[in-house]
Amino acid sequence: VYFLTIDNAKFRKPVVPGDQLKIHVKKIKKRGNLLKFACEAMVDGAKAAEAEISAMMVTSD
User: Fold this and answer.
1) Which bin fits 32, alpha (ψ -120 to 50), beta or left (φ > 0)?
2) pTM for this one?
């Protein structure tokens, strides 16, 4: 997998050492070997960050 872009990134609150960061990722689009994901990072149930990430699936030859 190659990461291509990070779009609409928003950092909502600071994350400090000792915080437990939970990352939720949902596939929102797939076209051929290109994928787009909606991502959220949560700390104590509150959204700390969010972004859309694009990636490309590749096979090794």
Assistant:
1) left
2) 0.84
What is the model's pLDDT at position 59? 87
Does residue 61 fall inside a structural domain?
A: no
In this structure, the dihedral spanned by the alpha carbons of residues 31, 33, 38 and 44, taken in order and rounded to 10 degrees, is 150
Q: Structural domain of residue 39, as residue ranges?
A: 2-56
Query: What is the count of structural domains for the chain?
Result: 1
What pLDDT digit, counting tens, does each position of 1-60 carry? 999 999 999 999 999 999 999 999 999 999 999 999 999 999 999 999 999 999 999 988
Per-residue CA distances from 27 to 15, 22, 61 (Å) = 25, 17, 26
Phi, psi of 28 (to 5 degrees): -110, -15
Does a structural domain hold residue 43? yes
